[in-house]
Amino acid sequence: MNANVDKKMAEYFGLIVEVICEMRHCALIRFGDREFVVDACDLVSVRQLCRAA
Prior knowledge:
mainly beta; five-stranded antiparallel beta sheet
């Protein structure tokens, strides 16, 4: 994986997960070292805000 690519993060029932691939009805997510297929409507996007130093 390219280190320069930002990871898309989402919340899945209180857990912060990485979204690998998202389609209309399902999504492939990673939590820890495991990958899961979940219902896409259960994901909530997380926006990371950065402040300039």
